[in-house]
Specification:
This is Phosphatidylglycerophosphate synthase. The chain is mostly helical. Helix content is 73%, strand content 0%. Helix 3 packs across helix 5 and helix 7 (163-192) packs parallel to helix 10.
Amino acid sequence: MTTGVRGPDLGTREETDAEGFGAALRRLRQAQKSPKGAPFYSLWVNRPLGRVFAALMYTWGRTPNQVTAISACFTFAALVAVALVPPGPLAGVLIGLGLVVGYALDSADGQVARLRGGGSVTGEWLDHVIDSVKNGSLHLAVAIGFYRFVLPEHPALDPWWLLVPLGFSVVAGVHFAGMLLTEQLSRARRISLGMTAVAPGTTPRWMSLAKLPTDYGVLCLSFVLLGAPLVFATVYTVLAVASAGYLVLVLGKWYRDLRALDRTAAAGSAP
């Protein structure tokens, strides 16, 4: 799931049209978004995989919006399968693979934009709209699939468990909206105060690892367990609880960060 600006430009399209896969990949490695705040899977697995897809798509002449559309096809095909296909080992592997590839391509669209000389506001808008649909529909697909296939076959699983994916959908939606709002409001306020658009600093690796249970990439990988629905339900519940707990903590942090910028602005305007 990509957020915010798509990163530094890597030259104009005219300058790079003759470039091959290897050269494109090397340039992408030299100009990546800041790792600040990124969970471990997203940082060390999804972004490198996205670079490979980006270099391929670029050499094949695909545009960033086309890459976004391809990403959506992989993701939503997997989600339709979660809702409509009986769970099994093969289905779980294919669904997990579809979600992983869709997530990597979601990272690739912005990198293709950089290779072509910069992104567009319409591309950014399209990317975020598709992410918004994905964040809600993924968990609703889990609820539908379990209601249709798992609950009738596994009476040990209480029907009240369906509240877990419904609650997870709310958590995912609030987190995504809060992340975008905080990023954009903070950027605008910092620029108005004459500060750098993004606060300096890095995220320790231990914190990146600590965020693993809340990482969308880990959620994608969990779907390979659909062949064992009760195991998947357990893992999915753990991820839901971890994500809800993290949301509570990060909402407080976001509020404090924005409040600090407001105090700085108020102090600067005081007579």
